[in-house]
User: What shape does this take?
Amino acid sequence: MTIHQADKLQAPQQNVDLSKASVPAEYRPTPAAPADIDGLRNKVGSPGTEDTGQNRDGHDPGAPDPGRPGSDQHEWDHRVRQWDRDWVSYDEDWRPVICNPYQDTLQVVYYYQDAPQIVVIPPLASAVLDVADYGAYDFTALLTGAVGQAVDVAVGSFFGGGYYPGPDLPPPPPPPPVVTYDNVPVAVDYPDATYEPFVASQVVDVGDDPQYGEHKVLLDGATPVWGQWSQTPDGQRQFEVHKTQQFPGLDVPQPGPLPGNYQLQLANKQSKAAPGMPARDVFVIAASAAVARFGLCGAVAFVVVRRRPRALR
Assistant: This one.
């Protein structure tokens, strides 16, 4: 099996360096207004994603991406990409810091303490978030143009457990280490279709999810999926995906295209899909789904662990 590379957002390195060097604005948890959440849903929803999973431009979500220009100003092609993990770091208090390496405004939406949160990061700036409750938090990163239209959408993740303790007080203890596996076979098995396994270069094990059920992992540290661990015929560790989340903070986990544009191929002609149904039509993405809570799950520490960076890069 070939290792699949996720489709990530790209930005000029100069912009990345500028945004990382900026003084991050501090954000405290503040529940977002329902009207603001509905506004973000409207920006990411389209006729092409409500019923069939097919993009508005007619492309199959599982088809190879022909590539896009590196400009900040363009029309969103309705592919949900991955937020680059290098654009998320942690300060000395273990708080996540998200940088915006674009000339466009970045809106980040995630769920925390039973409420959706929206963080607005200006161009080439950064934000540090107080997220005292430990857990893996998935977010939707929405880049908006001059008139407020979506120009790019990506999914990312960060870990909570950090907070500002107050002046002259010691920092909080470090969160538990993150469990990762490299070069993991991934099998996608949805109610209506089964897909050929592929290899993800890295899988972060989040643990059992009491909110949505099953086991949760992050493909390449960014794309959230739920399912179960299993084994390949030759005994290799494999993760079987039963659902994912297209727009964390705006929808609920369900079968659908994997954020990061992983190339899914139907396993065979006798798949669970209806006869003659193309792969794209087995996806059902409900753009108007109700906001749901994230599961806050611990990691199982019996494999090689890798610590997250302690300070801003």
About this structure: Residues 46-72, 270-313 have pLDDT under 50 and may be disordered.
